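Example is below:
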Amino acid sequence: MSLKDQITEDMKTAMRAKDSERLGTIRLLQAAMKQKEVDERIELDDTAVIAIVDKLIKQRKDSIAAFTQAGRQDLADKEAAEMKVLEAYLPARLSESEIVAEVKAIVAELGASGPGDMGKVMGAVKQRLAGKADMGAVSAAVKAALAG
């Protein structure tokens, strides 16, 4: 079963269970997926769906930080609940050491030698680690690998 099908099934389950918070988050995800399909006239595969989920999670993290800073804990809690639902659709994340090992392997494959190769390395890393790692941690690992 593809990830897209799994999301549809989870939406039906949330409807039957009358779980409005989960249902709202899944509908938000489906709307983002549909928007991408319509805009680019493509059929999304699992990798593209994971990229959309990653983007939505990043938006939630930014919103949580803003709401917390503004003293709106009620809204921050709502965003955290949405983020938890979205995280269920991501594959298992790589640990910090696994990210560093993957980045070093990619740097060696590409023969990258300095900060000027950052774009080339990040492009390769995004292809290989899409959805498997937090891109903030990946970016830090690439910078460290190219600096030293």
